Structures are given as C-alpha cells and as structure tokens.
Fold this protein.
Amino acid sequence: YGDGIFEGIRFYNKRVFRLEDHMDRLYNCSHYLLLDIPYTQEELSNAVCETVAASGLNDGYIRLVVTRGGNLGLNPFNCKRSCVFIIADKISLYDPDVYENGLALITSSVRRNRPDTVCPQVKSLNYLNNILAKMEAVRQGAAEALMLNDLGNVAECTGDNIFIVKDGTVFTPPVTDGCLDGITRRVVLEICRELQIPAQEKTMNRFTITCADECFLTGTAAECVPVTKLDGYQLGSGKIGPVTARILARFQELAQTTGTSC
Ligand code: PMP
C-alpha cells in the first residue's frame, strides 16, 4: 500500500553526510504515520555506519527503508512488526554532462500531492505521483519534471527541490507549497547564509522560473544540479550561473570534508 518511509543518504570518504538530519526526518515521519521503528535512533544510526563499513565503498548512497510489515488488509494495526533494511550502493541520477551544461526540465501535468492528502513532507513509500511525472519527463526526452501544486504554484521536482536566483537573491518555495523539507535544500540555505548570499522562501509559478537568472535543483542523490531550460525556455544565460557555481563549489567542499565517520 506504500505504507512505509525511506531515506536516501550519501557518504563521502566513508563519512555519512548529515546523518542526524536524515535520522530526525525519518523518525518524525514514523511518528506521523504511527509506524514504530523497532530500534532507537542511535541504534539505527550505528546500523547505517556498519552498512557503510561493510560495503567497502568510500563514496556511495544509502537507502534506508522502513515498511509496516506484512498483512493482507488495510488496518495497519494488524501488522506485527515493521521491517527495516539498509542498502549501500553507488548511484548516479543524471548524465555527468548536466553538471557542466545544465539540465532541461519539463513541467509535468501531474500535480504534487496536496498537503492534506499524502503530505509531501512525509518521505513515504508512496511515490506514484512522482513516478507518473517522471515518466512524462522521460517520454519527452527530459531527465526531470517540475511539479506544481494544486494552485499551479511550483512545489518541487519528482525527486529534487528547486531553487532560482533572481537579481542576486536565491529563492526556493516554502515547504508549505508542497515540497519535501530536503536536507540538501537546508544545506544550500545554510551555505547562502555563510556566503552572505541573500536567500528566502517564496511562492513561485512557471513565470517566475522562466524569468529566473539561474536555476538549480538539490537532492541527496542528485546533489546540486544546474538547470538551464524549462519547457524549451532558456533560463538566464543558458549556462551555469555565477551564484549557482559558488553554491555548488561550497556544497562539494562540505560534502567532502564533513559528516559522521564510520
Ligand atoms: N523532493 C523529493 C520528492 C525527494 O524525493 C527528495 C529526495 N530524493 C528531495 C526532494 C530532496 O531531498 P534531500 O535533499 O533530503 O535528499
């Protein structure tokens, strides 16, 4: 039934990036879904580290999944024990070329879930809307789709948060417009504070994006990806913008030098 939650977490040089933030989000989502995780947050964090160590990889991606457990019927309280598994692997979402030359997006006809349905702040296993939007993008030759909320405002992409730069200020939609409270999104907002780049949350529509000077996406798997086209419109110069480049560089530095050692 999609009745579960997950996290995607990256590790660099055997250090897990923002482990505590990912764990906090997982446990908040489990609380909301009344989905009991049969381990303490500390035990599960240790299990993530053990998985990284056992993988033998220096850099990679962890997929942590919690499912409700088996039961033929909708009543979740009939499930005896939830099931947790952790995978460590390599991941590359987009062609390496897009990190140099930018990604082309399309706007999906599939709307992001309304917050009063499957709330987009819950990183649940119910990703069917996102999958439908992703299929629409791929079938049109685009690697990612912009998803709007039911008011027609920008929510996020199928698996990434979205940012624009306009007149030197960085903007991203507030979580209440229907996006996940992305950990990479938070890191980028922190970087803006550190580099004294003005940044704020703002409701945006397609017009705002098409008129942006720069645009980029953030996500654990994707990291920071410049976007240079939306529905065939060129965004800004059509190349990675200067503000995006500064943020990307600082993000890479933080990813390579910080994190929980395993
Ligand atoms: N939005 C959605 C729908 C996602 O699934 C994800 C994670 N892949 C993100 C945004 C980015 O979140 P994070 O930076 O925490 O990976």
User: Anything to note?
Assistant: Residues 8, 130, 156, 159-161, 180, 182-185, 218-221 surround 4'-deoxy-4'-aminopyridoxal-5'-phosphate (CB under 6 Å). The mean pLDDT is 97. Helices lie at 19-32, 41-55, 98-101, 128-139, 183-194, 206-210, 242-257.
